Amino acid sequence: MSLLIYIYILLCCFTIVHPFCPSQCTCIYHGRSDGTGTRSVLCNDPDMSDIPVNVPVDTVKLRVEKTVVRKIPTEAFYYLVDLKYLWVTYNSISTIASSSFYNLKVLHELRLDGNLLSSFPWESLQEMPNLRSLDLHNNRLSTVPTDAGRYLQNIKYLDISSNKLTTLPSDLIDIWPPFSASANIGTDSLPERVILGLQDNPWFCDCRISKLIELSKTFEMAVVLLDPLLTCSGPENLAGVLFQRAELEQCLKPSVMTSATKMTSPLGSNVLLRCDATGYPTPILIWTKSDGSPVNNTVVQESPGEGIRWSIISLNGILYQDAGEYRCKAKNLAGMSEASITLTVVGVITTTASPLRFSKRLSAEQSVTTLLKIEPITEGLTTLSPTTLATTTLSSVLKKNPVQTSQTKPAAGGTRPTKSQPAVNNQKPQEEDGNTTTSAVVQKITIKNLQVVGQTEQSAVVTWLAPNAPRGVALNVMYSEYGVRDKQMINTDTGKSKISIDGLVPSTKYTACVSLKGSQPKKDQCIVFSTLDAETEDPQAHILIVAGGIACAIALPLVIVLLYKVLKLYCKKSASEGDDLSKETYVKFETLSLKQKTTDSNGDLWARRNTSESERMLLYSRSSIDSQMTFKSDNYQSEYLY
User: Fold this and answer.
1) How much is the pTM?
2) Are 120 and 143 in contact (CB under 8 A)?
3) How many other C-beta atoms can be found within 10 angstroms of the C-beta atom of residue 152?
């Protein structure tokens, strides 16, 4: 029995000294003279496809290299509480869970270089509070989130070189202590230096990395670059330029200011909400409601200068559902900020009406009462609550918000209507009817036959018809790029039937709408059109050029054939006329002698009057030649006579 106990004790001791090692790994124990030691495990089997799970618990250094492991599962190393060095390099890892490094409280160095990581769970660094070195070079990282700076507080060595990074968030430089300390470095104390690897990335040099470029030009700083010769890959004018030679303006995060934080407006009124923002580059403004849904009302934006933009949202004829919080968000490359306006809609309205007429009308229409409070009648008029914010007709209120009502009797001390009061009471309904008639006329105005004519590269002319519309009724012409909610607005009236829209972008699709001022355009009051290309010619001129080319191609062979026939006929005719002329003008020069000879050409011609026309021409030619020869004989002596 005692022998068995001794054997068991020996086996336990042997197990403690020589724990089990994974079959595809090599375990090495580094002992010291004082009896202590550390254990390291190397797993580099090319056939290994998973992270080993039976690694000795006292392992201090674990290396998984040159395998076909594709992912690190959740809590893959949670039992290695003494692990200080974890190298998972040159594998095929593309996925890492956010809790893969759970319980690695004493881990000092993490190397993941040479893998296929397109993203990294930066929040997992919270599980490694003692981590000082992080190597992610030679992966496929394309972005680093802004909140990564919160998890890099203790990192002293970060290598993200040889990835696909084009920029770094400007907030990362502001949050990460090494950068912020470098910006305010002093002579009293020098902060602990951080080694940073950024080389071999396609950096796009704009204002987002302007602070990084400025830091690369400073020698005495808390950040030391592994390779200080960083270069820009874009934009085109800075491609290949070193960081030290690039000059960029710094990004400025947007600053937003609204015209008011709270607004109270009466039911049915028109409200304008304004938002102003500054920043570089010039921020973009977006209006949303408190639930994040976009605002579908008319929005106008304008940038009067670089780094400044304002926006106005128009709420026409507001209802109770329009109340709430409106948020104006400004966004640019440096970040985003927002401001809000709270709109409150109240329904207190004033009107004048006879109480009898009012009660009779409510009973007839089975209407329900608004928030109006009718006071006792004084001199035939009904007075409402003194907290009135707007004035309108009772009929319009009843049309918009019918609610249950009951008749209100005048107070006991009230004054009864006299005989003279009906004239007063009848006067106001007439005015109400006039207002209702005018509103009805405006509402009956229809805009149709909307067309776009004469569009060019940067402008277009919008035409429409508003039949039977009185002059002077305000219209709104709204336009924007197709699919863009923010619209530009042009004010006009029914006295015009067309308007020119300028400042458009060539070869771009636009939407234009024409509607009454204060109303939303209908589907048939909008039209979609496109501007011409910058190099596009006039279509009519293009048609004329094509038609002319076709006509020339058809007519040219006919002209050539016609010219050939005319030339051939002319040559034949010339040949025949040449033969006749040679026969008619032939002269026997051998009859001429060296003596002077005088011939009366006139007598010779008159002697042959009765000859034919051809004979006379022959005689005339002969006479002319004889005359010339005689003239020469009279003036010049023959060289053979002396």
Assistant:
1) 0.47
2) no
3) 20
